[in-house]
Amino acid sequence: MTAALEIEGLVKTYQSLFGKPRVALDRLDMVVARGEIHGFLGPNGSGKSTALKTLLGLLRPDAGNMRILGQPVPRALPAVASRVGAIVEAPAFFGNFTAYKTLSLLAKAGGVPKDRIGIVLDQVGLTDRAEDEVKSYSLGMRQRLAVASALLKDPELLILDEPNNGLDPAGIREMRDLLREQADRGMTVVISSHILAEIQQVCDSVTIISRGRTVAAGPVSDVLAVADRGTYRVRVDDHHRAAQILADAGADVTVAGDHIVVRDLADAAWVTRALGLNDFWVRELTPVAQLEDAFLSLTGGGPRRGQFRPVDNSDWPAQEDFVDSPTGDVVEHGRSS
Ligand SMILES: Nc1ncnc2c1ncn2[C@@H]1O[C@H](COP(=O)(O)OP(=O)(O)OP(=O)(O)O)[C@@H](O)[C@H]1O
């Protein structure tokens, strides 16, 4: 069976009248199998939105091949558009329209049967507020209304850029259940996110990008296995002193709350020996395999709002290029620590 989404060698450079061109996508590759929930992960400014907008025909690519539901895009977009639901930018709703009226207009414009409105309102948990004006909605409720609008067509492929933005923990859980329900019905779901724990819980597979390039892809368990390069959590009495002993012995150690994290360990027994020789007895020695760790080790740093977290500068424009973020926030220069 063909993949729901395929991107191969996608290149996109933003031209600027005054500054240097900015390479946002640098031969990006991505494949999403049908029926799965796929996480599209990357630090701020790594190119996620650019990739999704290019895929959906909102930006023109410089090079590369893309297919949606087996059809080459952007050429075949008119043919596949009715089978794809997407939110790549926060949609602007009329504040004095109700959710029902908003969805009615969208349904009418898209030739969607009216009975879909009640179904999607129910799916996103807005039935009780359907007759309230959108201006009275919280950010999370607007987010759910946006998802409802994307679900109207009952699409085969649903693409959501940062769907959890503005949602509280309960809202995030509801969104997760909603996406899982859709996937169980056969819908393919692609979500971009920085909320790594969330991706780990909901996604079957991931593509991790950094600076416009794919750095890891595959089933979540495979990506975790690759990234699990001997990272262990160690619990011991007086963990500050124990961390010092391990650091003095040459280990890559950080103290994290009430435990120690030791990285790049070839043999976990080394920790037990090194501490035992100093009369420290290990109470816990557990391998750590979290998507967060995979993400950090693959992209070289954690996502921070409005900041770039470069990985390797070898073939990337000079540091002075990294001065503006799309949000206008302060931007970190150079390699992350
Ligand atoms: N309209 C634009 N003009 C010029 N450069 C842009 C434009 N939009 C994005 N960029 C640049 O392209 C790169 C990728 O940005 P993009 O928004 O695609 O990343 P992202 O991974 O979606 O980031 P975020 O997680 O912060 O939304 C960044 O260097 C960004 O500054």
Automatic annotation (TrEMBL):
Species this protein is from: Dactylosporangium fulvum
PROSITE patterns: ABC_TRANSPORTER_1, ABC_TRANSPORTER_2
Name listed for the protein in its UniProt record: ABC transporter ATP-binding protein
Keywords: ATP-binding, Nucleotide-binding, Transport
UniProt KW Nucleotide-binding keyword: yes
ABC transporter domain residues: 5-236
PANTHER family, per the entry: ABC TRANSPORTER, ATP-BINDING PROTEIN (PTHR43335)
Gene3D superfamilies noted in UniProt: P-loop containing nucleotide triphosphate hydrolases
Family in the record: Belongs to the ABC transporter superfamily.
SMART domains with a match to the protein in the record: AAA
Higher taxonomy: Bacteria, Bacillati, Actinomycetota, Actinomycetes, Micromonosporales
UniProt KW Secreted keyword: no
Start and end residues of each stretch annotated as Disordered: 306-337
GO molecular function terms listed in the Swiss-Prot or TrEMBL record: ATP binding
